[in-house]
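[[Per-residue structure]]
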Amino acid sequence: MKKLFFTFIILLCSCAGSVQVNHEAKQNATSHDISPEAVWHSGGSFRERVIERCSPLGGQDFGECFIAVMKDSGASPSAIAFTKLTGNTGYLRNFRETGVVDIAYVHYPFRANENYGCFLVNGDPPVIDVDAYDIVQKIELKKNKQYAEIFFAFPEASIWPGDRFGDYCVQPDAQKGIQRFIVSYRILNNCHACELLGSAKVAFDFDSAGKFLDTELLHVEAVVKVFNDPEKPVSVAVGSMFVIVLQSNRTTGYRWEYYNPKNASVVKLMGIEYRASGTGFLGSGGREVLMFEAVGKGKSEITLNYARPWEKDVPPAKSVSFKVNAD
């Protein structure tokens, strides 16, 4: 996950809810107050002006050129000061006063993927990047049962920024004595453009004086449901994907084989993938991941046999059945 999140080290995000403003506490919290005066409306041609002036750069740093174009375009000193907090790559597009700690919405016009972000500002520390690696690495995802199931099926699953475009990127949650901001993240299968596996909601808590306390993982929701216990029914919605994960060791020649379900109009096999344990030890085994789609409404049953494909007249070493209910 570390290498993935370095891509987002300067993506700052947050939003908040309605809490009575305590101006004295805000003044004591930081000498770098960010206010609505820092909001800047760039106009439709700003990006083109930056491209025209800053490319090629010659000996000038792109960030310095970005700032220069902002100044020439009428940006205020407050707007310029805020842009410097982003590493000279973004500007404040909107501001929301929510209490001691406020919300700053950012636009990064030249990012390849994540063009919007949010900051939690005016607290202690003055700016918090909710998508920064040093914040995200402390979120104890693997202790969450739902995430553990996702990770079991998709060992390269990792957390990525959620949608930061709208004012809903962070939701307020009133708590006694603290300001709480709830931030949503995406759980993706290894890369920015990879399969969406689920989402996570994380709380950012501040005390009444605006001092950042900690983050707390609140909830993980899987988009792709994971099943590994044949004693439990597979309940899924029509049109959704789900996976069955079973322990396997292909170094022995055995693998899980799929037999047509009792009602093929309900489920369809989309693929089978074997994933070694990653220990590096010869013969250590791994797990078989079988991806299905619920293609129709009704009940079905998936039967899987653990066998060597070339042993045609030998009973399977194991056999399991999963009952499926799609609605």
About this structure: Residues 2-40+75-222 form one domain. Residues 1-32 have pLDDT under 50 and may be disordered. The chain has seven helices and 17 strands.
